[in-house]
Amino acid sequence: MKNVKTALITGANKGIGFETAKQLAALGYNVYLGSRNKINGLKAVKELNKLGFTDVDTLEIDVTNKKSIQKAKEELKTKISHLDVLVNNAGIAGEVSNLPSIDSIDNIRNVLETNFFGAVQVTQHFLELLYKSNAPRIVNVSSELGSLTLQSDPEWEFYPYKVFAYNTSKTALNSLTVMLAHEFKDSTLKINSVAPGYTATDLTNFEGERTPNMGAAVIVKYATLDTSGPTGKFFNEEGEVHW
Ligand SMILES: NC(=O)c1ccc[n+]([C@@H]2O[C@H](COP(=O)([O-])OP(=O)(O)OC[C@H]3O[C@@H](n4cnc5c(N)ncnc54)[C@H](OP(=O)(O)O)[C@@H]3O)[C@@H](O)[C@H]2O)c1
């Protein structure tokens, strides 16, 4: 069993998750790139190997599938003795044009299944390994679109972006951050929500002026907090975001 710092990022085969894996590997972490498709995960690992990162591997994990999560946990337990960082990054946009008055329950359920229930069940399963770290950190990759304060502010740049299912899923994810931080307030575990900003990835059809690299840098900052760092908060690149 290795005794270096370890990290697991869900949905790390591409986009912001992949860049987060790269940056944590550059900091010397032994990184597991979660991927629901094994081949895509292996391709991502190969790409990192080509850049000189060797302490990286893939872990097949579909965050909507309990059996897949259990299998991934059992597999990871055979490879590492503790988990220092969990990044709940896997996410989908769903049907983006839908307003609350017309959005289908199927779409809402589907988006929450990945973005909220997925993060909840992955966290619950991997806590066993996180407990074995001296300073466990969890980052929930959220969005400013999940901030009810910003959603209610007509002056806010993205005020018209009322993507009901997606935004609601991130508000719910933020609730997980607050509740877990409270549950673990007397422990060394720190958990925060991070908004990477509007980033050009598959999820946005490559719209957005920010690069995955920029979004990943914010995630990595809160994944590697020292003991004086915050917990139970919501951050973007500029600082704290209102819930
Ligand atoms: N891009 C933005 O502007 C932006 C802004 C704010 C927040 N975010 C958040 O950032 C995170 C990463 O998004 P991204 O922009 O990097 O998008 P992306 O390039 O589409 O990456 C999403 C990742 O999530 C994975 N995924 C989706 N469903 C999954 C499931 N059921 N199980 C496991 N993995 C699953 C995808 O895997 P496949 O390749 O198999 O589909 C992919 O690896 C998301 O949580 C997103 O909501 C993005």
Automatic annotation (TrEMBL):
Q: What is this protein called?
A: SDR family oxidoreductase
Give this protein's Gene Ontology molecular function annotations. Answer: oxidoreductase activity, acting on the CH-OH group of donors, NAD or NADP as acceptor
Q: Which InterPro entries match?
A: CBR1-like, NAD(P)-bd_dom_sf, Sc_DH/Rdtase_CS, SDR_fam
Q: Which UniProt keywords apply?
A: NADP, Oxidoreductase
Query: Of which family is this protein a member?
Result: Belongs to the short-chain dehydrogenases/reductases (SDR) family.
Organism this protein belongs to: Aureibaculum algae
Enumerate the Pfam families for this protein. adh_short
